[in-house]
Amino acid sequence: MKTNQTFWDTSAIVPLCCFQDKSQELRRLRRKYEVVAWWASVIEGHSALKRLLQGNQISQTACNEAVKRLEIQSETWREIQPTEKVREIAKNLIETENLRTLDALQLASALVWCFEKPKGRIFVCCDDKLSEAARKIGFTVLPK
Questions:
Q1: Domain count, the chain
Q2: What is the mean pLDDT of residues 36-52?
Q3: Is residue 144 part of a domain?
Q4: CATH code for the domain of 49
Q5: Which residues contact 74 (CB under 8 A, 6 or more apart)?
Q6: pLDDT, tens digit, for every residue of 50-69?
């Protein structure tokens, strides 16, 4: 079954909502692909935007606008819920891929989304360590 759905890590979602180095490239991908995301991605996105504000990387106005964009975007994507299967896979990924908790939950959610068959499936991510783990288990990772 052909699909234009792709799994998006929060590190790739945040640049859709505010200006960052990879924003333009990610916006092109977003026009091409539908977003599938982990249940907590909107929470992680809020946290990331708050960190950008606190680090003076974006203004209060830009942060407020980015939060609104995040909320609007989150209404359009498909969410992978926090199931027992996600938890089980995430625990294994922590052991096998040495991932941190939220990264393991993101990758576990992507594996649940594709029924644990990542070959030919796209994982959109801007985090180097998570991208490496996703490639290692068989996902095609964008952006390159």
A1: 1
A2: 97
A3: no
A4: 3.40.50.1010
A5: 37, 41, 42, 45
A6: 999 999 999 999 999 999 99
